[in-house]
Amino acid sequence: MNTKITPCKVNVTSETGRLRAVLLRKPGYEIERMTPLNAAHALYSDILDKGTVDKEYANFCGVLERWTNVYYVKDILEELMNREGVRSELVSESLRHNAARKSMRAYAVNAQLSDQLMQMDSNSLARTLIEGYENPTWDGRSDDRYLLDPLYNLMFTRDASSTIYDRVLINSMSFDVRERESLIYDSIFRNFFHAETLNAKKWSSEARIEGGDVQIASNDLLCIGQGIRTNPTGIEYLVQTFAQEREHFNILVQQLPDKPESFIHLDMVFTFLGKHYCMAFEPMLKKTGVFSDKETTLITIDNGRISYYQTDNMLTGLKQLGWDIEPVYCGGVDPWSQLREQWHSGANFFSLGDNKVLGYQRNPYTIEALEKAGFNVLEAEDIVSGKVDMNTYDKFVAVFPGSELPRAGGGARCMTMPILRD
Question: Which of 56, 195, 283, 391 is 20 to 30 A from 66 via CA?
Fold first, then answer.
């Protein structure tokens, strides 16, 4: 990193306001440190080809760089590692968390490893905290190759922290392999962006929330997914927090299936495209298939009184709150196509602004449904090369190629953490 980066303010009051700043992590060497033996533990269904990942991600981040101010996790982390107090705190906490996941003998190497990390230059330390630190005495066979484990999922910047209005929720991850991600983001938002943070785990050790389940519909409405990554205790933390702060507030909760793994977060079945459009997985709305017994609950806060109501589905709940929103169906109208395309993040779109979205090219029936709804289909390669100017379109979907990236289990929304919107 050659130029000093300047923080912006933190403020996101909707899913679809004009995007002004976003946080990304370009996939690094950490994804090459997966094998068929540890991929499942890393929450991947397969190992990835980094060369292909790099090409696909270049189109993805290239579109965003043409549209908004892009911050990269590694760049910020490198700058923070020039601050002795921040460096010491993050190294200490990272080693403590890592050792807690392993056998007690891991604690014995912490003092020596801490000294080695603290002596690194800022660039090397930033990389090591993300990519892991290899055990110099590894025998080539055992499973203790890393004294500090790689953060395999850090490219999914959405999950470990969530900008909620003018604060950042440091999320409590459901799987220990991802817990250290929250440390990275907590340090970034406290020490670089100087943002106020919220932390559900400090309220209750049982609380779990991940950013893929948190959608900011408006200044007085959150949409939350409840499933294997976000639990009722985590949702109750948000209810109690806003009940103390707001006279009127609403949280719309959609229960998600425990399996298959493509339903891990709400944004895998529902995302806002604009003020009056959403992308949705039809079985979720019609409560069929794996959603046949999944509840949709509207939680209202009115001058300290908290009420819980069952509603038919997400659209019904939104309508009760005055939202006029039209669904575009992931996978189109054919049930088999819906299942196929949802599996590869066909509902996982990221809004750049009202009716301006970014998503995978590989889901043709979903893209066709968007085109029928009036969205102009723009190729990422044309945008990045300057051949196409997104600003000349009122309504568009920018599509980027994805063969390897979707196999990591996420899409455009998963890989973006908005910091500032209009």
Answer: 195
